[in-house]
Write a structure and sequence with these properties.
GO terms for molecular function: monooxygenase activity; oxidoreductase activity, acting on paired donors, with incorporation or reduction of molecular oxygen. With 355 residues, this protein is of the alpha/beta class. It is built from twelve helices and 13 strands. β4, α3 and β5 form a beta-alpha-beta unit.
Length: 355
């Protein structure tokens, strides 16, 4: 197995609202989980962005990341992701640099195009911008993170002055930027720019291995190295939870499949069918590190080995109520992750290279 000397384990916070919960309860749970993750020695927190979906109430990953950075002192916080087509890239760069300073370098920006929902019609430039992908806004973001952006020419047609982005980044050359990669196109965009990628729940170990190979080929064809810039390694997300019985595992993954299906539903569009939910459930049950502690260890190692990723984003909120979720996090941090580090030949990120 390939050794990962700088592997980082993090918690993916989805601000998911279960039946009977209000928004205040969801955000209170999110804050408790974030602080508990830091106390347990996890390396990262990751937060999501969703719009117009009552099942996921986190509408701004950047705002939530800022709050969690202020509520913690050691753990790193990243967005997974900021939906770039819904935000002005230069403004995202300004906020990224600001958080970089305020957190003493603990912020990571993850960007992507999200799902083709109504938010692109209401807040963005329509589904055409979603279909166009992230290349154009990503290049605008990166130019701003490097410090300068060209001013739009005035009405006379004269060239505008170059503007300096303020504040400049604390982390040089800029804070880490990750690109969500759900397709070969987005993977190639990241590889051509030397940026690490995030892979999500739809990719099992075999698919991750294929994506890794495609990234390396695209990077080589672009004249770059088959590893991301800055030494930052790729990341992937998994559902991770220690359970007592197979029945409990199946119930949790079915609930998670229903939640996942809701995130991909356009308002007014057809609901997921029972067959859709069953298909997603079966895939989760065969690929995700959910089950006994040993099952969780084995599957995490499979994902790490196949993907070559050095950052793991664990989603533990399937249990629902806050007490169960906190206990799930504790079991993951004490019964699973230390064994994974040991078997993968790793050390805690704080004792080695800081990604």
């Amino acid at each position: 197995m390939h050794a990962h000397n700088d592997i980082r384990f993090g918690l993916l916070l989805t601000t998911a609202r279960r039946e009977g919960q209000d928004e205040s309860e969801v955000f209170a749970r999110t804050l408790r989980l974030a602080r508990h993750a830091e106390d347990l020695g996890l390396d990262d927190l990751w937060v999501t962005e969703h719009h117009f979906n009552p099942a996921a109430v986190g509408s701004s990953a950047l705002t939530l990341a800022a709050h969690l950075l202020g509520a913690t002192s050691r753990i790193h916080v990243g967005t997974a992701v900021t939906v770039l087509s819904l935000h002005e890239p230069v403004h995202v760069a300004e906020q990224t640099n600001l958080l970089d300073h305020l957190s003493s370098g603990r912020f990571t920006l993850g960007v992507g195009r999200g799902v083709p929902g109504a938010e692109h019609d209401v807040m963005g430039r329509g589904l055409g911008s979603w279909r166009a992908g992230v290349a154009e806004p990503l290049d605008r973001l990166l130019a701003a993170l490097h410090g300068q952006v060209p001013h739009v020419p005035d009405a006379s047609g004269a060239d505008g002055a170059t503007l300096r982005v303020v504040p400049a980044a604390r982390t040089r050359p800029h804070p880490p930027v990750y690109v969500a990669a759900g397709s070969p196109a987005s993977l190639t965009v990241a590889a051509e720019r030397g940026l690490p990628v995030m892979l999500f729940f739809d990719k099992g170990p075999d698919a991750k291995a294929e994506m890794r190979a495609l990234y390396e080929r695209a990077a080589q064809e672009a004249g770059g190295l088959p590893v991301p810039s800055h030494g930052h390694r790729h990341a992937f997300a998994v559902f991770a939870q220690v359970t007592e019985t197979e029945r409990e595992t199946a119930q949790l993954m079915r609930a998670q499949a229903q939640f996942t299906a809701s995130l991909n539903k356009r308002p007014g569009g057809p609901s997921a069918t029972p067959e859709d939910v069953a298909r997603i459930t079966d895939k989760l049950l065969t690929t995700q590190p959910v089950g006994s502690a040993e099952t969780c260890v084995d599957r995490l190692l499979q994902h790490i080995s196949a993907s070559g990723c050095g950052r793991v984003m664990c989603q533990v909120e399937s249990a629902g109520d806050t007490a169960s979720v906190l206990r799930s996090l504790e079991r993951l941090a004490t019964e699973v992750l230390p064994v994974v580090r040991q078997r993968a030949g790793t050390v805690p990120a704080g004792a080695g290279a800081d990604v």
